[in-house]
Automatic annotation (TrEMBL):
Name of the featured protein: Protein-L-isoaspartate O-methyltransferase
Keyword Methyltransferase in annotation: yes
Assigned protein family: Belongs to the methyltransferase superfamily. L-isoaspartyl/D-aspartyl protein methyltransferase family.
Gene3D superfamilies: Vaccinia Virus protein VP39
Organism the protein comes from: Rhizorhapis suberifaciens
The keyword Transferase is assigned to this record: yes
Keywords: Methyltransferase, Transferase
A single GO BP: methylation
Coiled coil: none
Superkingdom: Bacteria
GO MF assignments: protein-L-isoaspartate (D-aspartate) O-methyltransferase activity
GO CC, one annotated term: cytoplasm
A UniProt-annotated Pfam family: PCMT
Length: 217
């Protein structure tokens, strides 16, 4: 498949998947129209880069559909001076988008099978720092963050991540509610933090964010 083919598919993604579904931030649209999504996929799956469904990366990890990513980034209202923590960098696609929208990006990934491609593709993005660490622990070293983006669906938001949100900062994620992924944004004011759901959208679960199992007798 040629670069021209991919560019045409990227344009179609923007026009048919994003603009028609409340992805209306011009900067988010521009970033998603500019970043070559196929570069972040294994060679044998690049033809699937612009479909409206998840694309498998490794066992247990997927690239989220474009709409889920676009809706989260739109809701986040990213400012050019934001310091962003990305949870679930995978092969680097969302980190590349954020690099065009924010001042700095700390991208956390724990899967050693995904890190080599992320390192290679993100090498040219000077404001992205790739960190190998547990997803549910984030990166305290560079906190506080004005924005945390969890790139996947989670059952709960760990307190370790909430603590890394700066006062007045935001956190966006897909929160699983009885099997349904609900996109949500949280804001921090002092020690208070709460999440507000704004849309249901397909998003693939991230490992390590499961609620503790409860037992009944």
């Amino acid at each position: 498949m040629t670069e021209h083919n991919f560019k045409s598919m990227r344009t179609a993604m923007v026009e048919s998947q994003l603009r028609t579904s409340d992805v209306n931030d011009p900067r988010v649209i521009a970033a998603m129209a500019n970043v070559a999504r196929e570069a972040f996929l294994p060679n044998d799956r690049q033809a699937l880069a612009y479909i409206d469904r998840p694309v498998k990366l490794t066992e247990g990890r997927w690239l989220n559909p474009p709409l889920a990513t676009g809706r989260l980034l739109t809701a986040a209202s990213i400012a050019p001076d934001d310091n962003v923590l990305l949870i679930g960098a995978a092969t680097g696609y969302t980190a590349a988008l954020l690099s065009q929208l924010a001042a700095s990006v700390v991208a956390v990934e724990e899967d050693e099978a995904l890190l080599p491609r992320a390192k290679a593709v993100l090498a040219g993005y000077g404001n992205v720092k790739l960190v190998s660490a547990a997803l549910n622990q984030g990166s305290k070293k560079y906190a506080p963050y004005s924005l945390i983006v969890i790139d996947g669906a989670v059952e709960e938001i760990p307190s370790a991540l909430v603590k890394q949100v700066g006062d007045g900062g935001r956190l966006v994620a897909a929160v699983l509610d009885r099997g349904v992924a609900r996109l949500a944004i949280g804001r921090k004011s002092g020690q208070a933090f709460g999440m507000t759901h704004f849309a249901d959208c397909e998003s693939v679960p991230l490992p390590g964010f499961e609620k503790p199992k409860s037992f009944t007798f």
